[in-house]
Structures are given as structure tokens and as C-alpha cells.
Write a structure and sequence with these properties.
The chain is of the alpha+beta class and 361 residues long. It is built from 14 helices and 10 strands.
Length: 361
């Protein structure tokens, strides 16, 4: 199923659900963000076709990724709100007479997570689950946002409606099992999700991940900005001795993961986190999706006519594939047992180089 066909099927699901669950008289604009294009669905208007439109707000998509873990709902347009006397309020423009649902498709969610360097495990699990079962999980994600938009929780009746429509999608597992796994993961997301904040600097929409009292710019790659490590990261990264054998009883999940990563870097050498990410992306299916995305993008005819922000995103995607290929080449013996197709990765990296030449032309 192509991305456009996927968006059409998701829109059909959303409109069917809307017919059964009433409660919101205002108009709902549902924005679906894919890798290749964006799609606008007018909920309640079956006659309006769902057509792909050129991508324009990839910076906004990074906010949806970090703040909503793939979906946001409310009256937000996605545009930063200006103050009356100049400057920015830190909020978003709102239209009180209509509702918006913003949602990332699984491939886009996984690719953006990799590019933004969001490494906390619970979000990685959501990405893996969505890449593995894209149709059912995307439908569940929309359904949850839709219920929030009409100020309702998930009741028994609502769950029956969801399950009835989920069965229209193809899936490897039983939809009821997928929903159970999703709900368990959702509980962890609420407890462990990282916060976010945004700023507008020199006309650029900067999105930050909150890290305790610190913060980290996650979408600097859109503007060619490299974020310096935080003071906390620099302090913890300077210790060459193993700290993994210290007493861990009572330590938080986040602390255990940081210690595990530090120990991995000590054992595997320089850029070991890139190696671990490569293996994790392969195991989750995200690597295969990423490589096929580059394949498809190479076939596009209108690369020169793309928006500047989309060109930057495509270059970053190509850079990422090249970096993955370089990581694999350095650690062939380590990745061999995991079954990564290194030849396909190398071939795609060459295509990525051609893609970058097209973008410069």
C-alpha cells in the first residue's frame, strides 16, 4: 500500500468513526503528515477527496513528535502566536470555531525520531510498534485524539466502535491484542514522556526537548545547527571508568539506561551509540522503511520544485543513510549476527549521494 493509499484508508476510517460518535459541532481539520507528502482530511465532509499536498512545516512536525508522541489535537493551527506589541507568546495561534488533529504516519514518526535524536526507550517502543503494525496503530492514534477533541474518555461503547472498525485493516496480530499492547505502552508514555518547548529565533521555529532543568534543540538539523552537549551530558561523558557495576537498586529507569549506554560506549568504542541505534532500527523495522523511503524519493520528478525546508529534510535523510552505511562498514563483524542487509544499505547510501547531488542542482 502506497503512502497516499494509506492516508485514504485512514481517512475512510476516521469518517466512519465520526458518523457513529457525535458530540462536536465545530469543524475538524485532520492533518496527516507523511514522509513524501501531507494530507488534509475534512472530517464530516465525505465528498471532499483526500489529496496529497507538498510538505511545508517539517519544523511543526518535530513539535508533534516530541510533544504528542505522534499526534496532537486542539484548536492549534501550528503557527506560533505573536504578541500584540511584537515578539512571540510561546503559545500557538488558535481558531476557537474549529478543531485540529495533527498526526504523523508511522514511517515519518520513525524517521523524525531518528533525525531528532530522541533516544528514550518508551518513544522508541511506540515507533517500533507503529512501524510493525502501521494501519491499526495509526487508526488507534487518531481515535484517541478524536475522543479528546470531543472531550470524551474511552468508554466501553467507544471501544466497541473502535474494535469494529479496526477489523477492516490488515494486521499480523489480532486487533484486540494490538489495542491491549498499545494501552499498556500508553500508560508508560504518560509517565515517562519528555516535555517540550519551542522558540522562534531569526525566523526559525526551534523545538527543544526538556531534560530536567536543561533542554536540547532537536530540530537544529533543519537549519544546519549542531546543538552542543548539555552541561550534564558533558559532565557525565568525561568518566572513562565503568560505572555500570555500581549499586543500581532504587535507581530510576532513565538512570539505568544512561549507565548502560555509557558502559556500551566504553566496551564498543567511539560512536557506539550510532551502532546501537542502527541495530535497534533494524530490529524495529524502521531501517528497512527508511531505506525504501530513499528509494522512492529518488524516483520523484519534482525535487527541484520542493520547498526549501523539505529539501533540507531530504538532505538530512540522505546524510543519515550515509552515516548508517559508514557505521555498518566499521562494525561489520558486530552487526553480522543481527541480519542487517549491508549490501542494500551500501547501495542505498550511493543513491542517497545521488539524491544530494539532485538537491544541489
Amino acid at each position: 500500500m502506497s503512502e497516499s493509499e494509506f492516508a485514504q484508508a485512514l481517512a475512510k476510517f476516521g469518517r466512519a468513526v465520526h458518523k457513529e460518535i457525535k458530540g462536536l459541532p465545530a469543524r475538524i481539520d485532520w492533518h496527516i503528515y507523511g514522509v513524501e507528502s501531507d494530507y488534509l482530511v475534512a472530517i464530516g465532509d465525505d465528498a471532499k477527496p483526500v489529496t496529497p499536498v507538498r510538505k511545508q512545516r517539517i519544523d511543526w512536525e518535530t513539535f508533534i513528535l516530541i510533544e504528542g508522541c505522534g499526534a496532537l489535537q486542539g484548536h492549534m493551527t501550528g503557527n506560533p502566536e505573536r504578541k500584540g506589541g511584537g515578539g512571540w507568546s510561546g503559545r500557538f495561534e488558535e481558531k476557537k470555531d474549529m478543531q485540529f488533529i495533527h498526526q504523523l504516519l508511522p514511517d515519518n514518526l520513525a524517521a523524525l525520531r531518528t533525525r531528532c535524536g530522541l533516544k528514550y526507550p518508551v518513544l522508541a517502543e511506540r515507533c517500533a510498534m507503529m512501524v510493525g503494525e502501521p494501519q491499526c496503530t495509526s487508526a488507534i492514534l487518531f481515535f484517541q485524539a478524536f475522543l479528546k477533541s470531543i472531550y470524551r474518555g474511552s468508554t466501553g461503547a467507544d471501544a466497541e466502535i473502535l474494535m469494529r472498525h479496526l477489523k477492516t485493516f490488515s494486521s499480523e496480530d489480532d486487533p484486540a491484542e494490538i489495542l491491549d499492547r498499545w494501552n499498556d505502552l500508553e500508560k508508560r508514555l504518560k509517565a515517562e514522556k519528555h516535555g517540550s518547548i519551542y522558540e522562534v529565533k531569526e525566523g526559525h521555529f526551534h523545538v527543544y526537548e526538556k531534560l530536567g532543568k536543561d533542554r536540547r534543540l532537536i530540530n537544529g538539523w533543519l537549519y544546519g545547527i549542531e546543538e552542543k552537549p548539555s552541561a550534564a551530558e558533558e559532565e557525565s561523558g568525561g568518566d572513562e571508568n565503568s560505572q555500570y557495576d555500581i549499586q543500581l537498586e532504587g535507581a530510576s529507569f532513565s538512570t539505568r539506561m544512561k549507565l548502560l549506554m555509557r558502559e556500551s560506549e566504553r566496551l564498543l568504542g567511539d560512536k557506539s551509540s550510532d551502532l546501537i541505534t542502527l541495530i535497534a532500527d533494524h530490529k524495529s523495522g524502521a531501517l528497512s522503511k527508511l531505506l525504501h523511503s530513499v528509494d522512492n524519493l529518488m524516483k520523484m520528478d519534482d525535487i527541484r520544485g520542493m520547498e526549501p525546508q523539505q529539501k533540507i529534510a531530504l538532505k538530512t535523510l540522505a546524510d543519515r543513510v550515509e552515516a548508517m552505511s559508514a557505521t555498518a562498514a566499521r562494525k561489520l563483524k558486530l552487526i553480522e549476527p543481527f541480519g542487517i542487509d549491508v549490501d542494500f544499505l551500501r547501495e542505498t547510501a550511493l543513491k542517497a549521494q545521488n539524491l544530494k547531488r539532485k538537491l544541489r542542482a
